[in-house]
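User: Continuing from earlier, I have the next pair ready.

Assistant: Great, send them over.

User: Here they are, in order.

Assistant: Folding the first of the pair now:
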Amino acid sequence: MLATSEVLDRRNVQIRSIGRAERDPLITMYDRFEPLGGSLGLPSYKAEVRRAWIDHSLRHTVNVAAFSPAGEVVGHCMLAADEPGSAEMAIFVHQQSRRRGIGRTLLRAALERAAAAGLGRVWSLTSPDNRAALRLQESCGFRLTKSMPLEAEMEIDLPGSEELRRYN
């Protein structure tokens, strides 16, 4: 996927909204993603199920991706509207690009787009063992709302876009 000499961080990735035109680069990232099934079963182990999930995800309210200087997708965040004013968030950063601020930059971009789209609440489910995901979301203003043995729910009430910038 990434050249081993290419060092990525939040300063040299491009974050942008994506749609069907970016399907193939998104599939490439998820096909090389590890661990498959590591986030409550996502992304799927089965290629055909993974591709259907990607196709479905590209229809959601907000879809943003992080692109390396070479144009490869190294991260993806989507918000799926579940009821008026609310959306579920999912975020995935390729294993070679983690712990470099890319996830935080990607999530903040998604939250800004959500606020601009009029969403008032974004929530997520993750494994309570996924400390990196929990820390990432907390650093962007999410709070823990439910903690159960197999999943943790977090949410953020979205202020206007200006207030979101204070988490930058």
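And the other member of the pair:
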Amino acid sequence: DAYPGEMFSGSIVSMGTIVQTTEGRFRKVTALVQNESGKIIPGMFAKVKVILIHEEDVITIPNSAFLDIQKDTSSIWVVEEEKSLKREVSVKHFNNDSALIETGLKVGDQVVIDVAMVKLEEGKPVEIVEVKEASASGK
């Protein structure tokens, strides 16, 4: 740690794809951090604690549904009438595991949750292999 015990506040603006290594799982994160002291320089690594806001009756989806997550608008794949469709969603918040969707999805929509594992094309037929039930969440 460059600054043991020091805390810096900021907000995450984007997260890249998860990379699995022998040392664990990693994800490139871009954040805006308060840096009045000038101690933080671009490219530094950090251990972070992500604090989410508690909200009722929201839709969350796993981050694995995104190739890249951007705060505000991101693309995901959904299945409608057994065909893959790319859909824009508005992401309100996200953490290491899931994203809180503000607009673009409703309860019951089928979301492809492992997009890195499959090759999808707009309007092409898909075969659903496994369904994980999800619903509105209190987180």
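Worth noting for the second one:
The longest strand covers residues 10-21. Residues 90 and 103 are 5 Å apart (CA to CA).
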